[in-house]
Amino acid sequence: MSNVSTDNSVIIIDDLSSGRLENITPLIQKNQVRFCRGTILDLDLLHSISAEIDFVFHFAAIPSVPVSFEHPLQVNEANITGTLNVLLAAQHNNVKKVIFASSSSVYGDTPESLKIESMAPQPQSPYAITKLASEYYCQVFSRYFNLPTICLRYFNVFGAGQDPNSQYASVVPRIVANICNKQPR
Question: pLDDT digits over 9-31, tens only?
């Protein structure tokens, strides 16, 4: 990642409920990002921050299928109300585009191994329902409030700093960890 120029900056809003500050501390120290500890449930914070930005990359969520069964109200609030807050603040401040991180879980357990956008959603968990509802909110804000949005349905996301031992770790880091430890894949 290169240094942020005077024309561009990155602001990260995170409540650190699932992330770790040490994952971004080097970026903060090098002035590559600005960090704001907060939540997307704080609409006033979102209004304030989004007044300064052109694009929103919305990755905030409670991303756990098991947690969504244990705490559906909490997951609904964070994922759907939080997304609605992001969209309201972005629309209010004329943000150029909101990029929303959805999930392949909206497809459900279909027999097809290849998933395509034209497939009918069949969510099988409260988490998947929140992602699908958020996609629909994005569509409404694009169509009726002239806020450009795009929804990306991610599969097996992985990257630096991901804990391969976490019960929520995706398959890719587990395979890499097994290869490094000379265990079966």
Answer: 899 999 998 888 998 999 999 99
Which sequence spans correspond to the domains of the chain?
39-154, 158-185
Residue type, 58: H
Class of domain 39-154: alpha beta
State the distance between the two ends of the chain, measured CA to CA, in whole angstroms: 31
Half-sphere exposure at residue 27, Cβ-oriented, CA atoms within 13 angstroms: 16
- Angle CA 173–178–181, to nearest 5: 125
DSSP type of residue 109: S
Q: Is the pTM above the cut of 0.85?
A: yes
pLDDT digits (tens, 9 = 90+) for 47-84: 999 998 999 999 999 988 999 999 999 999 999 999 99
Residues with a known catalytic role:
127
- Residue 149's H or E segment, with its range, is strand 149-154
Beta carbons of 74 and 28 less than 8 angstroms apart:
no
Quick one: three-class SS letters along 39-65? Answer: CCCCHHHHHHHHCCCCEEEECCCCCCH
Tokens representing residue 169 in the block: 């770790």
